[in-house]
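Async update (no meeting this week)

Hi team, since we skipped the sync, here's where things stand on the single-chain job. The sequence we agreed to prioritize is pasted below, unchanged from the tracker. I ran it this morning and attached the output directly underneath so nobody has to dig for it. Comments welcome in thread, and please keep replies under the output.
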Amino acid sequence: MSPADPEAITLGVMGGGQLGRMFVHAAQAMGFRTAVLDPDVHSPAGAVSHLHLKHAYLDDAGLAALAESCSAITTEFENVPAQALERLASTRRVAPGAQAVLVCQDRLREKAHFRTAGVPCAPHSPLASDSDLANVSPDLFPAILKTAQLGYDGKGQIGVHEATALPAAWQQLGRPPCVLEKKLTLALEISVIVARGADGQAVHLPVQQNLHRGGILAVTQVPAPDVPAATAQEAIRCALALAEGMGYVGVLCVEFFVLADDRLVANEMAPRPHNSGHHSLDSCDVSQFELQVRTLAALPLVAPRQHSAAVMLNLLGELWRADASGRLRPPDWRAALALPGVHLHLYGKTEARPGRKMGHLTVTAETPAQARRVALQAAEAIGFAPF
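Output:
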C-alpha cells in the first residue's frame, strides 16, 4: 500500500466505540477515507465514518465488504475475534496482527510473554481445574482471581484473602480459566503507549500516571508527578521490549504497577490506543490516534512532543443525572469550559449508564501544578471528585 495519496485510500477499523471514533477523526483529518465494521446501528465510530458496515465481527459478508472497501484495517478493542483478523490479513494489511491480539486477549499468554521478554510481573498461578486449586501456593495470598479472558475495567476479578475462600470465588466467576495473582502493595499505577511500525521503528508517549476507581480509570496526569526518572525510563524500555518481542505493528499500551519499594511490574497490555493516552489529543503535537493511523498507513513515525502539562478526567455515566421527567441529562459544561485550557470530548453515545465511558475532559497548562489546579476546579463544576 502506497501512502502517497491518502484520498485514494480507505482505512478500516474493527469496532465502533469511542476509540474507533477518535481513530476515524484522526484518519479523516489526514485525508483518508474510513470504514467501520460494527453491528451497533448507533455506533459512535460508525456515526462519523464514511462507511459503516453493520455486521457482526465474524459475519462473512461484513468481512468481505470491509476487505473490499479498505486498503488496511486495524482494531479498536482487544476482544475482536482473532480469526476475523486472520481472515482479513489474507488479502489486506492488518495491524495489529492476530497473533499479537491473541496474546493480549489472554492473561496467561500475556504473562508468558512478560517472562519471555524479561519484564517482571506479579507472582501468579493458572487455575483451570480442581487439581489446580490444590496446587496453589499459600504464598500467593492475599490474591486477586482474574478471568483469563474478557476482563476489563475491573470486571471478571474477585479479591481472595485466603486459600479457603478460593473455591467459592472461582465458582462465583463461573469456573472459567483464571489467573490467581498475588495482591501487591502499590504506590502508583502508570502506563506507557508505544507505536511500532512494520519496519521496526518505534516511538512512545510520555509516561502517564493513572488513578483508578472501581477498576476504571478516573484520572491521568502527564508528566507523571510521582514517578522517578529511572522508573519512567525502565517502563519505556519494558514497553518497547514487549512490542518488539511480539513483532507488534500498531499502537500498544502497557500498564504497570509501581510498588511501595519502587519496583516496577507489568500488569497488562492493550493492543490499541488507551484511555490513559487521550490527553495526547490536546497536550502533544502527535496524538496516539495519529500514531495509529501512521502505523496502519505505513507512514513515518515521529516521537510525540508534549507541549503542555495535562490532566485527563474520565467522564462516566453516573455524572448524567435525571431531570424532573426522569430523563438523564449531562452535566452543565459551561462553568468547566469557562476555565483556561479545558477541552471537552464527548463520544456520541446515546445512553448513559453507571461505569460507561461517555467522554473525557483534558486540562492543559504550562505547568503540572496549574493543570491539576484547574482540573480540580473543572471537576467541582461538573460534580466530580477525581482525587
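Quick observations from my side:
The chain has a mean pLDDT of 94.
Residues 229-245 form the longest helix (17 residues).
Reply here if anything looks off.
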